[in-house]
Specification:
two-stranded antiparallel sheet, about 525 residues, alpha/beta
């Protein structure tokens, strides 16, 4: 989306006027179709205008600006649909306008505190934290990235509260993402997750959940707090969902969606794409289904070979992933449904967001043991938040750790060198480069699964081979659609055809040599640089 300097003063005035109204008056205003239409129309017009405005989002390639505008429009339309369908309780209308839109999108957190961070460190502060307060989960899904179980590993409620307070004070943060384990199973010091939402009512939360513990009482409490958006995990229709999550899980998830819709709680879905379900979760039929159930948005995560029984074979193939890039953009553009793909839509967020981000904001991940990692999908930690606090340090000290600085520098150099933001992930897309950083800084693996990947040369070789093949398919798109397009006339460019993958025999020969070379080099490097 456009930066603060290019946002229409009219839009800001409208939002601020709405956000300062009392909750009953605010609810009446926002429920007005004419007000909805005016706000959405004005914001869309300003976004489209920014495409041709050289002062807006200066430094972005024209097609990158286009992607950001299209995604911004899909956010507005998804919210508008939710309001039109009366999916927001009065409390959520307050949370939406006063916290989500005004605080996060207009003010971008606390402006004064973010300015202080910028002046002190010369960089933008992280824009959000992802916290997994507990590992416990009532399901045992194959391939779970967190390898959750019924153990009680968790962060104390007071510690989570302290982390949030400090992120607000030092970084001006007002947005937190919660995962697990199953977040709604979290209990500590006589309190639960919703107690955090209630205390930090000046913040907005997104919660990734399997949905099975959102009973009537939990749903009513969420409707009252109005500042947390659940994202319910689903794998596709009944057959695929039950195959991964257990018999009967599809029906339980649908029941939870109905309960959330009944109580006017806006919600989304979380989709883990594998080689088995990639086509189904992006089909018109499935998008119709989740929208019909009331989902306002869908987040697409590609299966990452980490966690429980990790396997390279479960990843969407490079060919499937390239198809997903085009298909997801078709849905966002044609359906105006907010459906970000965290691996394929790097153009919307300046590439990778890990380790606090390299310029336009980013995030850190803190797990149930206190391990701080660059990303939930990069399970290597140079510092534990409990240890940092015991030593009198703060989140700013964590941010300054040399490993995190190196990750941010890699991200900055990656974008500055004009490399493809269709494949910006250092772990999935450039694993050999990430491993060099791991060897240099030696962060601790967060579990035995992460440790195993460091001593398995075939794991590295497989990911390197995967990335090379994906680049062979998508680099022509990056070059022609993004690098070669120098101006924007205000019209959206049509989506390109996906180039054919290299011939099977060519890819097989090349892949085999790539495997061998990568395996040999990484084996030598590990023997001298890494001990696990």
């Amino acid at each position: 989306m456009a930066d603060n300097g290019s946002k229409s003063k009219t839009v800001q005035f409208m939002v601020r006027t709405l956000s300062t109204a009392s909750t009953p008056r605010l609810a009446r205003l926002v429920k007005s179709r004419s007000v909805q239409k005016l706000v959405v129309h004005t914001v869309k017009r300003q976004l489209l205008k920014s495409l041709k405005d050289p002062s807006a989002d200066s430094g972005y390639l024209p097609s990158v600006k286009e992607d950001r505008v299209i995604m911004g429009i899909s956010i507005m339309e998804s919210i508008r649909r939710g309001l039109k369908n009366k999916q927001f309780s009065d409390s959520y209308i307050r949370g939406l306008l006063q916290v989500f839109v005004k605080t996060l999108f207009i003010d971008r957190g606390n402006p004064e505190q973010r300015k202080q961070f910028q002046e002190a460190f010369g960089k933008m502060a992280p824009t959000f934290l992802l916290i997994a307060p507990g590992k416990a989960c009532n399901l045992r899904c194959p391939g779970c990235y967190s390898d959750s179980d019924d153990k009680s590993n968790h962060l104390e409620w007071s510690l989570v509260d302290r982390i949030m307070d400090e992120a607000k004070t030092l970084w001006g943060e007002r947005f937190f993402v919660i995962s697990g384990g199953e977040p709604f199973a979290y209990r500590s010091e006589g309190k639960d997750l919703i107690d955090l939402f209630e205390k930090h009512d000046d913040c907005f939360f997104m919660v990734y959940t399997n949905g099975t513990l959102i009973n009537d009482e939990v749903s009513r409490r969420l409707a009252k707090t109005g500042n947390a958006l659940p994202c319910v995990s689903i794998e596709g229709f009944r057959e695929l969902t039950d195959a991964r999550r257990g018999d009967g899980m599809f029906d339980r998830i649908v029941e939870t969606m109905s309960r959330l819709k009944r109580d006017k709680i806006p919600f989304g879905v979380s989709l883990t794409a594998t080689c088995h379900n990639a086509e189904e979760i992006l089909s018109d039929e499935f998008v119709d289904f989740i929208m019909g159930k009331g989902a306002l948005l869908a987040f697409v995560f590609h299966y990452m070979p980490i966690g429980r029984s990790f396997s390279l074979e479960l990843m969407p193939t490079p060919e499937q992933r390239a198809w997903m890039w085009k298909r997801s953009w078709e849905i966002v553009r044609q359906r105006q449904f907010f459906m970000p793909d965290f691996w394929n839509h790097g153009t919307c967020v300046d590439g990778c967001l890990a380790a606090g981000g390299h310029g336009q904001g980013g995030y850190f991940y803190i797990d149930w043991n206190g391990a701080v990692t660059p990303c939930v999908f990069v399970p290597y930690s140079p510092v534990n938040i409990r240890d940092a606090y015991a030593q009198g340090k703060t989140l700013n000290d964590v941010w300054q750790h040399p490993f995190f600085q190196a990750v941010r520098q890699w991200e900055y150099d990656y974008v500055d060198d004009g490399r493809s933001m269709i494949s910006p992930c250092p772990n999935r897309d450039h694993h050999d480069e990430l491993e060099r950083l791991l060897m240099q800084y030696e962060p601790e693996p967060t579990d035995s699964n992460a440790a195993d990947t460091l001593i398995d040369p075939e794991y590295t070789a497989g990911l390197v081979s995967y990335n090379r093949r994906f680049e062979m398919i998508t680099d022509p798109i990056w070059n022609s659609r993004y690098l070669d397009r120098k101006t924007h006339d205000g019209a959206f460019a049509p989506l390109p055809d996906i180039p054919e993958a290299p011939a099977a025999e060519e890819a097989e020969t090349w892949s085999a040599s790539e495997h061998a070379g990568a395996a040999d080099s990484m084996e030598r490097a590990r023997s001298t640089s890494i001990s696990v």
